[in-house]
Amino acid sequence: MVAKGWKVYNPSGKKRVVVTKELPGDRWLKILAQADARVEYGTETRILRAREIKAAIGNRCDGAIGQLTEDWGQALFAALRKAGGTAYSNYAVGYNNVDVDAATKRGIPVGNTPGVLTEATAEMAVALTFSAARRVPEADAYMRSGRYEGWLPALFLGELLARKTVGVIGAGRIGTAYAKMMVEGFKMDFIYYDIHRNRGLEKYFREYSKFLRDQGETPVKVTRATTVGEVLENADVVSLHPLLDETTHHLINAKRLRLMKKNAILVNAARGPVIDEAALVAHCKKNPEFKAGLDVFEGEPKMKPGLSSLKNVVIVPHIASATGWTRQGMATLAASNVAAILRGWPVSTDPLRIPEFLEGTAPNAAPSIVNAKQLGLPTLE
Ligand SMILES: NC(=O)c1ccc[n+]([C@@H]2O[C@H](COP(=O)([O-])OP(=O)(O)OC[C@H]3O[C@@H](n4cnc5c(N)ncnc54)[C@H](O)[C@@H]3O)[C@@H](O)[C@H]2O)c1
User: Fold this and answer.
1) How far is the C-alpha of 157 from the C-alpha of 76, rounded, in Å?
2) Nearest to 125 by CA among 251, 328, 296
3) Where is the domain boundary, 300, 315, 330?
4) Full residue range of the structural domain in which residue 87 is found
5) Tens digit of pLDDT for each residue in 202-229?
6) C-alpha of residue 40 to centroid of ligand 1, in Å
7) Which of 4, 48, 78, 185 sits between 20 and 30 A of 194, alpha carbons compared?
8) How far is the CA of 148 from the centre of ligand 1 (A)?
9) In terms of Cα–Cα distance, which of 72, 134, 140, 131 is closest to 106?
10) 98, 228, 241: residue to mutate for ligand 1 pocket, most atoms within 8 A of CB
């Protein structure tokens, strides 16, 4: 018997894994079945409440896969532990919805899905950048409304980005991929702020600059800013790619928005609360030349009042990782995390091995467990 809104795969499996949403493809189901798991997955499209997830965990549950929209805190980890659970994976690379300490305290490994979202998310940040710069949604709506009467010299003027300056805050995996797309694609100078220096990226751009010079082209400049403000003051486009924690909550506020150029573009494909959204609405209202491209929102699925009526803001519903390959890859990684822990396998700590889990022969290991060190789990490498 299974509750309404839930389906079962491999009903005879000896272990029980609860997955709060049906994931794309079927490889994830097979990976869990190979670990002898009966998989129970939610089929509702609405976001489940904690008490519904707790009910699904029930009295016996060996592992779970949850979503970034769910609050995996003390209550759910206590329920999972009580039901005998020994493994959890988030179906996301970010895990700000997970209280990792609460899981660690109960000996539960927490998996995430790094690497597979990098290019997809960076590409969406690029899409938002140019949609905002060249006013694509506004022009699209104009065309569909039948108002186009012919080419005009000043119809929908936007911003040219080639050879200007792109700024990144949070130059990790996604920030780096975005920076490379923008610098190599549009020969932009690059400025970034990150609490950790990204020497590899700096070297990459220095070499790229040398290559451009050798080709008789103007080289690009690379700057590591010492403050967030330095990026905001100097860049024509600023894309946000830090993780969300107490140091990045409202990293962009009214005061910092005022530092930006009047016609700058701000892109957020990280997490909504990195921007004070009400302050952004006020800034965009006051500065019609300023533009923003947003994939994420402070109080998702809601938006702050006034945001959706602003013409200088491009908004999409948290779809930065929404490509078939990415979402199936995330499912494979999340399932592999849980299956590996259930099978007693070690943890891989080498990000370069992630593709092996996605294609070809996967190592007998969990691809990414964020609290592996704290729990003293054995490692593969
Ligand atoms: N919109 C989406 O669908 C989507 C998809 C994937 C990831 N994300 C978000 O993007 C984030 C980044 O992903 P990633 O794979 O690049 O992670 P990452 O860990 O590789 O990069 C995060 C970077 O942020 C930096 N950082 C941390 N605190 C900072 C601070 N206070 N100021 C500046 N930089 C700081 C870190 O040093 C690191 O370089 C994730 O945590 C997630 O929240 C969103």
Assistant:
1) 51
2) 296
3) 315
4) 6-116+322-375
5) 999 999 999 999 999 999 999 999 999 9
6) 31
7) 185
8) 41
9) 72
10) 241
